[in-house]
Design goal:
Helix content is about 30%, strand content about 15%. With about 160 residues, it is of the alpha/beta class. Helix 4 (about 95-105) links the parallel strand 3 and strand 4 (about 110-115). It starts with a helix and ends in a 12-residue tail after the last helix.
């Protein structure tokens, strides 16, 4: 992935200094494998992706790998997380979701939830009867909405 990412980053940097997300093997479960082999970015504005699904992944395994990367000075971005199983199936698990959200917050990570859709799976945010004018939240959607409502309304800028 590094060789590919180095090539892509060099092209992106010709046009933008925005944050670039770089993946890692095993469905973005192993950001620790990047340690000592980071992408070459002159802007130092790269974050490595991390994914979790509350009913499929454990903090003691996948979370530990993420912490290894963080402790090595790498930036992580949780570019995909879900309230159910990695397959999209199953029902949300409040206890495991709360544990993962605490982990994300404790490590001050940004994240993006999967899936803001009304497809027929346990992690979809909306029920099938939703329309553009009338959203009906699923159990997963209500849970995500609860987490998003606790986001801070201000931030402290990072030091250069």
């Amino acid at each position: 992935i590094k060789n590919y990412a180095d090539n892509v980053v060099s092209v992106i940097r010709r046009f933008s200094d925005n944050l670039i997300l770089v993946g890692n093997p095993s469905w973005d479960q192993t950001p620790n494998l990047v340690i000592g082999n980071e992408v070459d970015d002159p802007k130092h504005n790269v974050a490595y992706t991390f994914h979790y699904y509350a009913n499929s992944h454990l903090i003691v395994t996948q979370g530990r790998r993420g912490l290894q990367a963080i402790n090595a000075g790498l930036s992580l971005f949780v570019s995909e997380w879900g309230t159910g199983a990695a397959s999209g199936g199953g029902v949300p698990n409040l206890e495991r979701n709360d544990e993962w959200q605490d982990w994300v917050n404790e490590n001050k990570l940004s994240s993006a939830n999967w899936s803001a859709s009304k497809i027929n799976e346990g992690t979809a945010a909306f029920l099938s009867e939703s329309t553009v004018d009338s959203l009906v939240y699923s159990e997963a959607g209500e849970l995500v909405k609860k987490y998003l409502s606790t986001n801070p309304d201000s931030y402290t800028a990072c030091a250069d």
